[in-house]
Amino acid sequence: YRPGQPVTRGDIALWVFRYAEYRGIDTRERGILYQYTDYRSVGDFAADAVSWCIAKGILPTVSTADGPSIQPSKPLSRIDMAQVLMQYLSMM
Predict the structure, then answer these.
(1) How far is the C-alpha of 88 from the C-alpha of 69, rounded, in Å?
(2) Using an 8 Å Cβ cutoff, are 60 and 67 in contact?
(3) Do residues 58 and 14 make contact, with C-beta atoms less than 8 angstroms apart?
């Protein structure tokens, strides 16, 4: 899947969401996306995944001068990846 390309925040939300579904984890909970300044930049294909990851505290949001942001197309930093994994594993 796009070797050599950075993993975006939206990508990781989708991967974690799909893996949780595969593992039989309840993925019905949703966060409120429209409270984020860039909620419209979340693609329809990833909206449920991003919303679930935010509700579960898996995907860290970003503070900006305009307010909280999701930044789904931003490459995932190492520290964000570590946080995603730790939050996901804490659900187990």
Answers:
(1) 20
(2) no
(3) no
Q: Does the predicted model carry a pTM greater than 0.85?
A: yes
For tokens 């860290």, the residue is 60
Q: Please state the rounded mean pLDDT for residues 26-53.
A: 95
The DSSP result for 30-86, as a single string, is ---GGGSTTGGGS-GGGHHHHHHHHHTT-S--EEETTEEE--TTSBPPHHHHHHHHH
CA neighbor of 8 nearest in space, from 90, 82, 87, 81: 81
C-alpha 46/C-alpha 91 separation (Å) is 21
